[in-house]
Amino acid sequence: MQIRDSMVSVGEGTTVEVRRIRHEQSQGPTLVFLHESLGSISLWRRFPEHLAKATGYDALVYNRLGYGSSSDEELPRPYDYQEREGAVILPRLLDELGLDKVVLIGHSDGGSIALIAAGALGERAHALITMAAHTYADKLTVDGITEMMDRYQTTDLREKLQRYHGARTDDLFRAWHTVWLDEAFDASLDFSDWLAGIQCPSMIIQGEIDEYGVPEQVADIVAGIGASAQPLFLPDTGHSPHLEKPDQLLELVCDFLLGMEPVKSENRH
Length: 269
Fold this sequence. Notes:
eight-stranded mixed β-sheet, 11 helices, alpha/beta
């Protein structure tokens, strides 16, 4: 496999930082990874590379606007930032790279954006996998963010995040908690049309001890998508399955994807 980082234009004078993981020969869809609100390309660790190797699919990981070396995002973060990312910016990025068939893989905020993207992309979305996606701010979401704010002020959390976000750390943290704790933002969220538009097989994953979301998040998403969606709860797992249980998650996702389309078994090793 070849791994290469580059900058790609997404219009309106903005560019995003992308990492492409490519095989010499790949006939399947491209895995597209969408990071969380405090995430980045680097914070996926090696999960994208491992999944690309196991499936034989190419992969695309990118930093949203405001993250890494990507262009600045609009601040304060507008209420429709998820819709803009999933229905406007991501399709532009895929068009620019010539990617017509994708598997959307999103974590937390990235999972919510993946839901919108799957609804917007129609037949271009080959499959959808979300981890800890939210369609509203529930009690665990609010309590978890409030607790994280305290940690940001009283522990070394800020310094840890600065390793990945540098001078943008305070802006990103403020943008995240400000919008998600805004009751007007929560009231504005409506995923119904996006969920109804999802046509592809979907795996909606959440850790059983996710500290940021209630199980009803999964039930509501699956109900909104319909028969093509399946729920999956991971025992003894919190908010970040790809970091807490990477091997188990890799096996589950591979079974899901490879069950849809035959891929050479040696790719699993």
